[in-house]
Amino acid sequence: MAVKQISVFVENRAGRLADITGILADNKIDIRALSIADTTDYGILRLIVDNPDNAVSKLKKAGLTVSATEVLGVEVDDVPGGFARVVSVLSDKGISVEYAYAFITPELGSAYVILRVENNLTAEEVLSDAGIKLIEQNDIFKK
Description:
Layout: E1 3-11, H1 16-26, E2 31-38, E3 42-49, H2 52-61, E4 66-77, H3 82-92, E5 97-104, E6 110-117, H4 120-129, E7 134-135, H5 137-140
């Protein structure tokens, strides 16, 4: 029940982010969530898009370094402690979160969180057993 995330290595220079998002826009690829991590020389742009395979293809064709990764998506209550519950469940089972980012959902009162963990299958089982709703790619793009 994984979500496909694309990661793009981005040079730290003016206009590069505009170039990348422009390529996606020109190809009618919808961005639902993103996160940017930076180092001195480059950044990593992580994206959840409606058509990850097409996005990877178009970005590679433009000469960018791109990869696709399966990450977990969970729905959390949009209340104080909603995310804390998710990470506590994982922590109690010895599962660490490498990174996470969140975005709002079309439904009032909930948010989606993207999680990168070492073992998706184990984390899925632990979260599901705790009653935490896992989401799929198509859940993210419901209108």
